[in-house]
From TrEMBL:
Native source species: Phaseolus vulgaris
Signal peptide boundaries: none
Protein name in UniProt: Uncharacterized protein
PANTHER family the record matches: OS02G0130600 PROTEIN-RELATED, PROTEIN ROLLING PROTEIN
UniProt KW Membrane keyword: yes
Keyword Membrane listed: yes
């Protein structure tokens, strides 16, 4: 079968393979370049060096389960994430019962599952964060700095020769970093996984719903496609719940993580190639077909469209931050 497939390959097939291959390698390179610097970013965060609220490497663990809205108890975010996960799980269960597991040949099901994973991780991390919040409320940065400076000033000798300004500032800085580590921990593997899942889901949901409502429904109606209430809910509630979480959460949205979104789509396309090489003949999306000279144009457009989809969601996050900064004092707005 492999030999037959190799004989049937055309030049446009090779171009499509090249487009996906370049996207895959380029995305991995960007991930390696930026995620590889996470250690230095964590050190910068511990020193209090967040710039304009933009986080490139790691984030404070409290940002995973706290809300950006002043005065909002983290239990509300936990409740919303849990109800979102529960609703999406019910919808996908009904979908699988109607169409069996072969429904997972669709990109929609992949994205829907990814959004469910995000809400599952968010529920678990929010629950743990609420437990920490209730049992040991975190100290504010101003209170920590005031306590540290007062403690150090009282413990320093009064001899001016022994208390040089430079040494005092260095001691305060080192001691502050050490104690602040006890108050707030930098997120680990699960924190990164939650962030990556959130940012990948954001771009994938925009792409999925736009393609479904603007391309498939009006132009690609085919015999085995029939729009119903369940299908409409699955192509809308995923975005609704994710946007609701975005309106409340305190997670960053760095530009370079569009590469995870691209890697996600590359994984789906490679999956389609593999099952077709194994004998699967039907393409769930006609624009993924390889047996046409127009295929490279479609594949190139699909690669490019990831950027505006991710950028559109990034604008939503920035708009939320601008609204909060405008209507709430900077001291209250958690960025």
């Amino acid at each position: 079968m492999i030999n037959n497939m190799a004989i049937e390959l055309e030049w446009y097939d090779l171009v499509c393979f090249g487009i996906v291959g370049v996207t895959l390698v380029g995305s991995l390179w960007v991930v390696w370049m930026h995620e590889g610097s996470s250690k230095s970013e964590d050190e910068r965060l511990l020193a209090g060096g967040e710039e304009n609220g933009t986080v490139i490497g790691g984030v404070r663990s409290t940002k995973l389960w706290s809300s950006c809205w002043p005065g909002m108890h983290p239990l509300w975010l936990l409740l919303i994430r849990f109800l979102s996960f529960l609703t999406l799980a019910v919808l996908q269960t009904l979908d699988v019962c109607d169409y069996d597991v072969t429904i997972f040949v669709y990109y929609t099901e992949w994205t829907f599952t990814l959004v469910m994973i995000y809400f599952a991780l968010g529920t678990i991390i929010s629950a743990h964060g609420c437990w920490q919040y209730i049992n040991k409320p975190p100290l504010q940065n101003e209170e920590v700095d005031l306590f540290l400076r007062r403690d150090l000033e009282e413990s320093m000798p009064t001899n001016p020769i022994a208390c040089k300004d430079k040494e005092t500032k260095a001691s305060i800085s080192l001691y502050s970093q050490y104690v602040e580590e006890e108050f707030k921990q930098i997120v680990g593997f699960w924190g990164y996984l939650m962030q990556i899942t959130y940012q990948t889901s954001a771009g994938a949901v925009i792409l999925t719903d736009i393609v479904f409502w603007c391309v498939i429904v009006p132009f690609l109606s085919i015999s085995h496609f029939k729009l119903n209430m369940l299908m409409g809910a699955m192509h809308s509630l995923n975005a609704v719940f994710l946007l609701l979480d975005t309106a409340l959460n305190n997670l960053p949205f760095p530009w370079f993580r569009v590469t995870y979104f691209m890697l996600w789509s590359c994984g789906y396309i490679i999956f389609q190639w593999i099952i077709h090489a194994c004998g699967f003949t039907w393409w769930p999306y006609p624009f993924l077909e390889l047996d046409t000279p127009w295929a490279p144009i479609w594949y190139l457009c699909l690669a490019v469209v990831h950027i505006p989809c991710y950028g559109f969601y990034s604008l939503i996050v920035k708009a939320k931050n601008m609204i909060l900064i405008r209507f709430f004092p900077p001291a209250l707005f958690r960025t």
